[in-house]
Write a structure and sequence with these properties.
The complex is a heterotrimer.
Chain A lengths: L1 H37 L6 H21 L6 H24 L7 H23 L4 E2 L7 E4 L4 E4 H23 L1 H11 L1 H7 L3 H27 L1 E2 L3 H16 L4 H17 L4 H15 L3 H14 L10 H15 L11
Antiparallel strand pairs in A: 1-4, 2-3
Helix pairs in contact in A: 1-5, 1-6, 1-8, 1-9, 1-10, 2-3, 2-4, 2-8, 2-9, 3-8, 5-6, 5-8, 6-7, 6-8, 9-10, 9-13, 10-13, 11-12
Chain B lengths: L5 E12 L2 E12 L3 E5 L6 H8 L4 E9 L2 E2 L5 H4 L4 E4 L11 H8 L7 H11 L1 H5 L10 H13 L5 E5 L7 H16 L4 E4 L3 H7 L2 E6 L2 E7 H6 L1 H8 L4
Parallel strand pairs in B: 3-8, 3-9, 6-7, 7-8
Antiparallel strand pairs in B: 1-2, 1-4, 4-5, 9-10
Helix pairs in contact in B: 3-6, 6-7
Chain C lengths: L1 H4 L2 H33 L7 H16 L14 H23 L4 H21 L1 H4 L18 H4 L10 H36 L1 H11 L1 H6 L4 H27 L13 H12 L4 H32 L5 H26 L23
Helix pairs in contact in C: 2-8, 2-11, 2-12, 2-13, 3-4, 3-5, 3-11, 4-11, 8-9, 9-11, 12-13, 12-14, 13-14
Classes of the chains: A mainly alpha, B alpha/beta, C mainly alpha.
Chain lengths: ~350, ~240, ~375
């Protein structure tokens, strides 16, 4: 059983799905925070995440230039600091003027911001793809060879758990975290209560920016490549995750991200083949040789056909998002509906 | 009241949104030991008067005074620094925060001694004490109103402004809220309350103002207004 | 004098101006289409590239000659291809609109970006139909196609005599004719939209945009009207897409319809020109295209100069980087316009709204 499905399924579909889910989850946190507290869809978020990935690369290269090599996670720390700075600068000059304007204007500003950052990256780092980590990362055996996991996959999942825990502690046990949740509920009430909304906004960019920065570094580690279209490509899944979980609900963003990451990877699994295999065994158990022959033949045909052609992977997130918007716009965890 | 200090005063306020005025020369005041009720028909400008105090609209003429200091036009986020506490009619609690967290947020501008004050709130509102870890959004309307008021009291305000606190509440909770208002006054915080439930509100009021079409129409003690035949005709015929 | 006029340089310049008007016209068409959706009705369509692609591919597949690599060979007349492009774009808009039109502005933006991406994925993956990333080539261009013997031999052109008699004419003069066709369509669409804007339909749209609740209370079927506006805009964008395909003569899913350039550029054009405003749409389209194209020349020139001065700088990389810098600057200009002149250069002249202004009295 394990050899027939489990091995392939767990190691080549489920685990990569979990890893991708972690990356989406971290990215979606920033989106949902901005949506909830600042009340607009930040289209530039994907590009900010991408900047962090490129900056991580730069810091690694700088360190190498100085003679010592650092792992991506270490280089991600100064990269995150710079990324947070970028987020704060963007807010100060391009979003703050629109605090009291109609949502649509600030959405357009973020749209324009998306373009500006996306355009600036090739100017600084060149238009070509950059290899972040060379070669194929080895899959190491665990549990007697049942599990094959790459080091980077452990790092990403562990790292995500750490960041989520810290994030949760901040949101639930610190004054500023509670204030962020309060502003997300009702900025007007927060104002008359005396909460300094600008401080809360700044905290939002810092925390959201940090999560995005880490997610960017993880993305680079996962795909091992940097390209200037990374930011845009990841934007839709993050929005989908935030909407799936419920706007303004960080828990929702995390769950949503995991669901979408898993869905994207799992949908490429040859489910038809697996189903046929089950039918085959079942027919052997009940001794229905006709069925067995049929099942065997079909199975041979479809055993490597993915349920959805990999070229359409990117459409999975979008499909989930549209379904949510129609069926349950408030999302799984009942976020804000517009 | 000769010796009692005027805590809050609206003096000849002309105010509104955009180009249209809704208030045409309103005069009101609250002394430091009274509950003042503002009643009037829909559109009379009751809520608008409160929003004028909070700087939520254009004050064209006139002044808002706190302890005889002019605070006209102070923006809403600064008004709380003057310890003028406001409970809006709707969206008056943070729905996804617990009762405890709501109270903590109420103390944002004066964090010292927060926990003591929270305990005092739980003493004043024992119902809330048992629900302190529950999300405010999951409480009943009446309990939510209590949370809103307790949260507003966390700053030890000079005056408490309530906008239709009993709107949509069951009769039981209405009585609870009015009783709480009296208790708040007894604890030294004067209250200015806009109300639709005129009869019951006047029952706990020391004084009242009747606003019609953005102007003062009647004023007097709670008892005087309750017994005034014209006021009775305007409102008190309605079901309470 | 005539020598100077017909000199190579002058002809080159005139061809350049011609191409400016041509591409500027195509973009102006897209702006007009977007204006129906955004300016008239307040719909944030961030998936312009998708609709243009649908229009372009529909036209291309229906009109190109047979190629072993994708379905086609229908060799339908150009106007049929263009009509089909408009219809295809409209159908997609209808489907999307039925699902998404009720969404708030930023949700609609996300949804339309998503749809444009799905369209792109389909175009990339369904290689049997579209030849995938390798694209569709040799797309017939209006007027130029008449210089191609294969076309000239078909009806109805054959009625005009032997192809060899006039194919030379068309091969020389098609740039001008094509440009005039595009500009002609721009004028046509502009006039049609101006009529629409002041018509009862247009005024209802403005009312919905200004105060939806009041319009609904007045009994207007807001959802259906929004869908109508979305479809009309999409049809115009589809037409522009067909022209775009004709101009490029080779389309493929990734670069020709890059949302960063197409969608974004059209939005900047509309905002700068003056959203809500047909004149602004045309002006913005032409003006920004001239700036865009002009700066490309400057960049190329500058890159070559720098390449000569600093031999280890590769001009092609410089050009690419500079193109991105140009994109960055356009984005920066957009931010500037949004902050200082949100109404654009030509602010909107509004016809009377349905039911007049409503004063919100809040108490």
């Amino acid at each position: 059983m394990w050899d027939a499905f489990g091995f392939e399924f767990i190691n080549f579909y489920l685990i990569p799905g979990l890893v991708l889910g972690c990356i989406y989850a971290l990215g979606a946190i920033g989106i949902t925070l901005t949506f909830g507290i600042l009340r607009f869809a930040n289209f530039a978020h994907g590009e900010v995440m991408m900047s962090s990935a490129y900056l991580t690369y730069t810091f690694m290269a700088l360190a190498a230039g100085l003679g010592f090599s650092v792992v991506p996670l270490v280089a991600a720390i100064p990269a995150a600091a710079v990324t947070i700075g970028i987020a704060l600068v963007i807010d100060r000059f391009f979003y703050r003027p629109f605090r009291k304007s109609e949502t649509i204007i600030i959405v357009m500003a973020s749209f324009g911001m998306m373009l500006m950052v996306r355009a600036l990256v090739p100017v600084i780092w060149g238009p070509n793809q950059i290899t972040f980590v060379r070669g194929i990362t080895p899959m190491k055996p665990y549990l007697d060879g049942m599990l094959l996991v790459q080091d980077k996959q452990w790092l990403i999942v562990m790292g995500t758990i750490v960041v989520m825990t810290v994030f949760s502690l901040i949101m639930n046990y610190t004054r500023i975290g509670k204030a962020m949740r309060a502003v997300s509920d009702s900025p007007d009430l927060a104002r008359v209560t005396g909460i300094n909304v600008e401080t809360v906004i700044r905290a939002t960019w810092i925390i959201g920016g940090f999560c995005a920065a880490v997610a960017g570094a993880f993305l680079a580690m996962n795909t091992q490549q940097l390209s200037a279209t990374m930011g845009f490509r990841i934007l839709l899944p993050k929005f989908a995750a935030a909407i799936l979980g419920g706007i303004g609900r960080p828990v929702g963003a995390i769950v949503g991200g995991m669901v979408i990451g898993l869905a994207e990877e799992l949908i490429a699994y040859p489910w038809q083949g697996a189903v046929m295999q089950v039918v085959w065994w079942f027919s052997e158990v009940i001794n229905a040789t006709g069925m067995t022959e049929w099942a065997k033949a079909v199975h041979k045909d479809v055993r490597s056909t993915p349920l959805l052609s990999p070229g359409y992977k990117a459409g999975v997130a979008f499909g989930i998002m549209v379904i949510m918007l129609i069926v349950r716009p408030a999302g799984l965890f009942k976020g804000r509906v517009f | 009241m000769a010796e009692a200090k005027k805590v809050l005063e609206l003096s000849d306020i002309h105010a509104g949104y955009g180009d249209t005025d809704i208030l045409h020369g309103i005069n009101m005041h609250v002394c430091d030991d009274e509950v003042v009720v503002v009643i009037g028909p829909n559109g009379a400008g009751k809520s608008t008067a409160v929003k004028a105090i909070l700087g939520l609209l254009n004050i064209r003429k006139g002044d808002v005074l706190l302890n005889e200091q002019v605070i006209t036009g102070t923006p809403p986020e600064k008004v709380i620094n003057q310890r003028v506490s406001y409970v809006p009619q709707t969206h008056n609690v943070f729905v996804s925060l617990t009762v405890q967290e709501n109270l903590e947020m109420g103390a944002w501008t004066v964090p010292e001694g927060m926990n003591d004050r929270i305990e005092r709130m739980y003493e004043m509102f024992p119902d809330l004490a048992e629900k302190r870890r529950q999300a405010a959004g999951s409480l009943s309307g009446g309990q939510r109103q209590m949370v809103a008021m307790a949260k507003a009291l966390m700053v030890d305000p000079e005056v408490l402004l309530l906008d239709e606190p009993t709107a949509g509440l069951s009769p039981l909770y209405r009585s609870v809220i009015f009783a709480a208002v009296q208790s708040i006054k007894d604890n030294g915080v004067p209250v200015l309350m806009v109300e639709q439930n005129a009869k019951q509100a006047l029952g706990v009021a020391d004084r009242g103002y009747v606003l019609v079409d953005g102007s003062n129409r009647h004023t007097g003690t709670g008892q005087e207004l309750r017994e005034d035949p014209e006021v009775a005709r305007m409102f008190l015929g309605a079901r309470d | 004098m005539s020598e100077w006029l017909l000199s190579d340089q002058m002809v080159g310049n005139m061809l350049y101006v011609n191409s400016l008007l041509l591409m500027g016209g195509i973009y102006a068409l897209m702006c007009l289409g977007l204006n129906v959706q955004w300016g008239f009705t307040g719909l944030f369509n961030a998936g312009i590239a998708g609709f243009a692609a649908v229009g372009a591919y529909t036209y291309a597949i229906l009109t190109t000659f047979a190629s072993g690599m994708h379905i086609g060979g229908y060799e339908l007349p150009i106007w049929v291809g263009m009509l089909a492009a408009m219809i295809a774009s409209g159908i997609i808009a209808l489907a999307i609109g039925a699902i998404c039109i009720r969404l708030r502005a930023d949700y609609l933006a996300i949804a339309t970006i998503g749809i444009a991406e799905i369209i792109k994925l389909i175009l990339k993956n369904e290689t049997a139909i579209t030849n995938g990333p390798r694209g569709v080539a040799k797309i017939p261009r209006s007027w130029e196609h008449l210089g191609d013997a294969r076309v000239a031999e078909k009806l109805p052109w054959r009625l005009f005599g032997e192809p060899s008699a006039y194919e030379g004419f068309f091969r020389e003069w098609y740039p001008l004719l094509f440009m005039l066709t595009v500009v002609g369509f721009v004028l046509l669409v502009y006039l049609a939209l101006e009529i629409a804007r002041t018509s009862p339909w247009g005024r209802v749209m403005t009312a919905i945009r200004e105060n939806e609740a009041a319009a609904r209370a007045a009994g207007k079927n807001v959802t259906r009207l929004r869908i109508e506006s979305f479809v009309v805009g999409a049809v115009i964008i589809g037409l522009a897409g067909a022209f775009y395909a004709q101009q490029l003569r080779f389309i493929e899913p990734t670069n020709a319809f890059d949302p960063t350039k197409l969608t974004f550029l059209v939005w900047v054009m509309l905002i700068m020109g003056g959203s809500g405003n047909n004149r602004g749409a045309v002006l913005g389209g032409l003006m920004l295209w001239v700036i865009w194209s002009g700066t490309e020349l400057v960049i190329r020139f500058g890159a070559n100069v720098l390449g000569d001065v600093f031999p280890d700088l590769s001009p092609s990389v410089l050009v690419t980087k500079a193109s991105f810098l140009r994109l960055f600057l356009i984005g920066l200009i957009l931010q500037f316009v949004l902050q200082r002149f949100p109404k654009g250069i030509l602010p909107e002249v509004r016809p009377a709204a349905l039911g007049g202004k409503t004063n919100e009295v809040r108490d």
